[in-house]
Amino acid sequence: MITHQRYTIFFLIAVAAILSVAAIFLISPWFAIAALVLVPLTALGVYDLWQPRHAILRNYPVIGHIRFLLESFRPEIRQYMIEGDQDEVPFSRQVRALVYQRAKGAEDKRPFGTIENVYASGYSWLTHSATPVHLPDSDFRVRIGGPACRQPYGASLYNISAMSFGALSGNAILALNKGAKKGGFAHDTGEGGISRYHREGGGDLIYQVASGYFGCRNDDGSFSQEKFARITADPQIRMIEIKLSQGAKPGHGGMLPASKISAEIAEARGIPMGIDCISPPAHSTFSTPVGLMEFVGQLRELSGGKPIGFKLCIGHRREFLSIVKAMLKTGILPDFVVIDGAEGGTGAAPVEFANRVGMPMLEGLTFVHNALRGAGLRDQIRLGAAGKIISAYDIARAFALGADWCNSGRGFMFAIGCIQAQSCHTNKCPVGIATQDPLRQKALEVGDKSDRVARFHRNTMHALAEIAGAAGLTDPRDFMPYHFMFRQKDNVFLDGNEVYPYLPNGFLLADEEYPELADWYDRWERATAESFAPPEIPFGPFASRRKQPQPRIGLVRS
Question: Which residues span the membrane (predicted)?
Fold first, then answer.
């Protein structure tokens, strides 16, 4: 009996079921109520004993289902009952509350002081001025468009990052776009094409062209010049972004099963129904750095001179230097580059990609900024940054490291009601954002949520004006690394110049080399405009020019 005691509960349920059925005839029909519960449980237990998939159910029939039930709402239990205010999974309660408060127009101040551990490694802070200034206007703008651009765009410093229709519901897309219209900022379409919900909202669009060429593809999946020219003639489309990779799953393609392709998704993407939709990992239109630049030039002409750029998460640093060399060789420059960090979000990604592939945003942004400085191109190309940028402090820090504007995806999702249920890939989003279920998305009321989107943007820009004024600046784009301090360990902190320095303009092209930048020169020499592939490296350890560690060079403001 002891060895089989795990079956006790099932045995008692089965006996009770038999007795309840007998009692219906012998005592009272009211025992049918008990039988309606106990008989199905007994049948479930019998099935558990014979099913081959779950060992726990075979050993613990009926009661084993409690384990799966608890597991199904474990995230909710953690989020609402266990999680601390600063536990990042992936956004802390404190961060989410900030967005909710600003989106609703509620009080966003905190009493009693910070809950941050200001002496912990990794803590950073802004250095304020003894002579702060007041900035009455917080509608900050940046002009995007280089010398070859005939239709430059005056973008807000904070915009909605790429999220596709299909990953997000129609109501979510419409609420985001209407909010962007009300607030005067831009909405990136994501790679899923331009849906009627994007157009109905009327907000400024950044049209993303990814490897699937959705909205501008031929039947075989190749790029269609005619369709691209026709789509981008729409004045609502203000910029075009070539997606090379995204932070949450760089180097990974995707597949939308035929069962999930609705008529609206098929229309937006320009794909047939009934066939799995493949997003390949790489573009078919180009395969070399020079090819990418030629594609940039082609899109600029086809779009009538609108700003053209590309988005990527930094992987091999040499490959980006190859792109820079292609810019110099062809004379074709993108109008902008968006750096997505490994901390970026997605509807679904393999755990290995989400956790361990790609460079985080701060390091990626710093690298791209300095690579363009090294080639003397930084002043001609605008930089966008994305990757868990929620607060005014996040934006200010990105500006200090080289960004000209910032994008946020999940921040604006919080603004329209996302509760971080992390069920985006299940089609069962509890608030109707990341789902195509018609009933679920009806819960998202577009009018109210679009107001929240605009209000979150406005209040964040107001906070950015306040934090810039506290630093004594008249424009947040004037933030520099030295405005920030970074704690390395308990009693050691460094100036931002030491952690994220600006490297000298043109140092990669200069005749005289800086010894402390030997690693940069090594990668620059290995980079080639003709290929992303690395040159042949001899067996054995790589021989760097740098013989010993060198101190970081100081900030160069020119």
Answer: 7-27
Is residue 56 within 8 A of residue 45, CB to CB? The reply is no
Q: Would you state the structure tokens that stand for residue 237, as one six-digit string?
A: 């489309």
Between the CA atoms of 501, 505, 508 and 509, what dihedral angle is there, to the nearest 10 degrees? -170
The Cα 1–Cα 545 span in angstroms is 74
CA atoms of 35 and 25, how far apart (whole Å): 12
Q: Which residue do the tokens 């909205």 mark?
A: 215
Residue 289 token pair? 């750095």
d(CA 433, CA 397): 29
Distance, in Å, from the CA atom of 257 to the CA atom of 93, rounded to the nearest integer, reads 34
- Tell me which residue of 230, 384, 306, 235 sits closest to 297, measured CA to CA: 306
Strand partners, 207: 240
Cβ count within 10 A of residue 127: 13
Question: What tens digit of pLDDT does each residue of 239-296 get?
Answer: 999 999 988 888 887 777 777 788 999 999 999 988 888 888 999 999 999 999 999 9
Weakest mean pLDDT among 63-72, 317-326, 365-374: 63-72
Q: What is the mean pLDDT of residues 185-210?
A: 96
CB atoms under 10 Å from CB of 297, counted, come to: 17
Residue whose token pair is 């393609």: 253
Question: What is the average pLDDT score of the chain?
Answer: 91
CA distances from 435 to 172, 199, 260, 354 (A): 9, 20, 10, 21
Strands 336-340, 382-386: pairing is: parallel
Instruction: Tell me how far apart the alpha carbons of residues 95 and 226 are, in angstroms, rounded to a whole number.
Output: 44
What is the distance between the alpha carbons of residues 253 and 251, in angstroms, rounded to a whole number?
A: 7
Two tokens, residue 479: 């933030």
Tokens describing residue 525: 């020499």
Summarize pLDDT for 54-99 with one digit per residue, the tens.
888 988 999 989 888 887 777 667 666 666 666 667 888 889 899 9
Which of 95, 159, 198 minimizes the C-alpha distance to 418?
95
CATH superfamily of 141-476: Aldolase class I (3.20.20.70)
Q: Amino acid identity of 265?
A: I
Query: Which residue spans of the chain are classified as CATH 3.20.20.70?
Result: 141-476
Q: Which of 363, 253, 241, 386 is nearest to 307 (CA)?
A: 241
Q: Cα(238)–Cα(154) distance, rounded to whole angstroms?
A: 9
Report how far residue 508's alpha carbon sits from residue 2's, in angstroms, rounded to the nearest whole number: 76
Query: Which tens digit of pLDDT belongs to each residue from 413-464?
Result: 999 999 888 888 888 888 999 998 899 999 999 999 999 999 999 999 999 9
What type of residue is 224?
A: S
As a whole number of angstroms, the distance between CA 218 and CA 224 comes to 5
Structure token pair of residue 444: 């998202």
**DSSP 8-class letter at 514:** P
